[in-house]
């Protein structure tokens, strides 16, 4: 069995000029994920469920205790490590610059949704973490800058997610390689390679959408939903609906079984809900790397030129043929 650390080091050996920084950074993210996993596993008995004192984040959402706990864990681990020049998080208004001599030397910055699926925390349903890694464009040796973060998705160097589900998984991909999935063996505290070279099926039989919004999406999206749901002579509908209220869980299913995930714009949210920089872009990167596609309805997600670290965009993402059908 290959561990996550062994795997990243093995990949490194393919590139004699590589410095090992990326594998160091992934090791840090993996460590923080294991720390979050420990908390998530005992959340109901450790008094870490529910709201975090009524705090509201920059998104206008009520912050849950687990949102804050996950956020602080990732920030602390990356700050005390040596491979990350700075971070953007869903839970922080501004970028966090790790301005110290060791981190200023790092060529990478990280954008992160520390805890995805906050509404699932209190009910023991799947939650996740999403991250995106860029090479900085600013000068090494100095503190990182806004420009390092505000790069379009096509510039991502690596991305990944952690799923705290019925088992905990770490899935990541890099520009040079395919997408690989690792499963946590809780008894030894190691992630082991369980899903090598993940390829998203070209087509699928499920779609993921919250029907509460059926009435407020535009006519074209509604038409596609009707197509998904269509039934002839009272037979079963064309596709099954699967919706976990957690983008990581919904997409993990799609990576393995195929399907399409949709969070369109609607009347009350003209740009949709999901955040371009730490939800849509990393998932689009992994999706394209594994053979699927991701669009905002007009263009590829990763072509969008970002203007703000917290900007939102509509997203339709998943199996190539299903996204093609939607576009049609
Ligand atoms: P987060 O918990 O990081 O704020 O994101 C939750 C996201 C995503 O995981 C899920 O698909 C979507 O929000 C659900 O949105 P609604 O608020 O519309 O239910
Ligand atoms: Mn949130
Ligand atoms: Mn999220
Ligand atoms: Mn979140």
UniProtKB/TrEMBL annotation:
It catalyses: beta-D-fructose 1,6-bisphosphate + H2O = beta-D-fructose 6-phosphate + phosphate. Residues 200-327 form the Fructose-1-6-bisphosphatase class 1 C-terminal domain. Its EC number is 3.1.3.11. It is found in: Cytoplasm. Mg(2+) 1 binds at residues 90, 113, 115. One of its GO terms (cellular component) is cytosol. CDD domains: FBPase. Residues 2-195 form the Fructose-1-6-bisphosphatase class I N-terminal domain. Keywords: Carbohydrate metabolism, Cytoplasm, Hydrolase, Magnesium, Metal-binding. Substrate binds at residues 116-119, 273. It holds the Pfam family FBPase. Mg(2+) 2 binds at residues 113, 116, 279. The keyword Transmembrane helix does not apply. This is Fructose-1,6-bisphosphatase class 1.
